[in-house]
User: Fold these one by one.
Assistant:
Number 1:
Amino acid sequence: MTDPRPEDDRPRLPLSFRRHAGAWEEQRATWRQARASEIAAGLERASSRPSGNWYVVGASRGIRADRPTGRTVAGTETVLWRDAHGALHAGPGVCPHLGAALKDGVVRCGTLICRWHGLALDGSPFAGWDPWPVHDDGVLVWVRLDSVGGEEPTQRPVVPSRPPVDRAVTAVYTGVGICEAEDVVANRLDPWHGAWLHPYSFVDLEVLSAPVGGVPDEEDALVVRVSFKVSGRVVVPVTAVFTAPEPRTVTMRIAEGEGAGSVVETHATPLTPVGTARPRTAVVEAVMATSDRPGFAVAKALAPLLRPAMRSASGRLWRDDLAYAERRWQLRSTGRFPGS
């Protein structure tokens, strides 16, 4: 006879109570720890990593088989669609005949048809239209634009380590700011602002370790202890690790605490060409929540209902964070940024 399976000794609800909660203005100041030179060094290290010319253009669920989808990356129009078998196709969004916007076309039996004169594209080269490499990782869609990136191309994008899609609840938020991609990445490489700028979501934030000087890629991480605010003094404490695996991506992984293994993956995609006087950048953020608790199966079943709330939570945070990124760009573009 085998021993019975040991019971999970964790509390039924993953909550803690803050007994000594102070006012917002009474929390420990973090401006001395948030050294401009260290944030700039982290940004430089991220920028030096190869991307293979891959850009995130949106959520996998957003590219459908019944209509084309248009995206712009660094001023380059892109059209995406799925064929009758669900396979993804991408390429120039300008019709090679007379320049119609292919995003306004229609998809019939997996073929994209231009509305102006009926030029039909099945995803293979035809009539001067050539496809671009595209990758669907199950959560996000990436397009490789060699003429934009200018790097050595790679077969696949740098997709960070994630929980398996079939064991996670996923949601994707997209926002746009007047800034450059580096301003978005710099925001994510500054976790010290969390409890000050987002007191409705984070409390008791402490950066446990930050890389100093030249460090190998595997050690280039910010480790943060923070509590997610639920209501009043009720919180969920976790330890999170921030990394930047490529120039336009920053991930936050829950290393300890409730939801260990969950990931928030932030991608910055330039919408306007390099050097534009008023640059615009898209923030595409994928939240992949997972848990080993038995009750998480219920959350998986309710995923379609949870996704709007998850996107709303991301949107609230990014209203503040895009203001941060936009302010940073305004100061940089006028030579007034003190963190240079």
Number 2:
Amino acid sequence: MARLAQTAGLTDVQQEILSTVRDFVDKEIIPVATGLEHRDEYPQQIVDGLKELGLFGLMIPEEYGGLGESLLTYALCVEEIARGWMSVSGIINTHFIVAYMLKQHGTQEQKEHFLPRMAAGDIRGAFSMSEPGLGSDVSAITSKAVKEGDAYVLNGQKMWLTNGGTSSLVAVLVRSDEGHPEGTAPHKSMTTFLVEKEPGFGEVRPGLTIPGKIDKMGYKGVDTTELIMDGLRVPADRVLGGVTGRGFYQMMDGVEVGRVNVAARGCGVAQRAFELGVQYAQQRHTFGKPIAQHQAIQFKLAEMATKVEAAHAMMVNAARKKDSGERNDLEAGMAKYLASEYCKEVVEDAFRIHGGYGFSKEYEIERLYREAPMLLIGEGTAEIQKMIIGRRLLEEYRFQG
């Protein structure tokens, strides 16, 4: 198992961080994950442990109290955490998307105000694009901000917020027509607002309500919620970057980080599924020998391991491309698409290897079987990834004739 998904060229610091995270996952997450997941219980003790390890500040610059590590380091840590329990990786994903957006696009005052407390884990981030009437079509956002004096008043309903209840800072994308005449392209009239709130459910600040958790098939433990804004007043200095109309581009930049994260999660879940499958295949006997000695099972294991390796390699490539400062929407889209599809296939093969026992809640593979489908839709469906990939390929391979 240790031979799979190795990453060449890591520094001693990166290797030490990954070793620490791997030990934490093996000792603190895997033994309790299934029980917590079945109870849909927020993993507070695990989150406290991640805070002590400094993981909430992993990518935040050292000048703001973080570790200043790369996206690659973060993605490899996410891969390890998802191997233990995918829900925990979701808790830090949205936090890091918001931290990344602040680092890249925030004003100096916004960085100084939020990033040190985010690095310490005292502020937890969430971000919000989707709405009940839209998913992939971000241009159809109807939530709106209207300028009133030195503040904006926000109204609308948002959907599918990971960390909606436990977060204390939400980056919310809404339409803002102020300064953008009628007929302006939708993506040029959107603004990201940094909305501070109290953790919890119900009315968490005047004009802002977080209803209870959405009950889900999988991806339990982490809270997924709606967000309802009804006359929510937000100071003008909480416009991300200080200028309206840039929200779409800021969010898409953050989503590229999110897609690398989802790819890393797919790699981690697939790795765990392979571990469970190869272990069970050596323990379960049929026809007088371990099923691992049957050629049909060996073929499955070979296919599973190859998919784990391929997805890991693409995820690492996408992270390194982003770290280099280059555009990586093509690589991130490919990595997210391949890793999520392969994850689903590897999990299903591990499920099949378990036979009837895979259907039992006593076996960990049952949980993974319910978790894998979320990766097919999170941060953009497979169809959206293929649209992004196709358009970028046509840019790169434009026919001259």
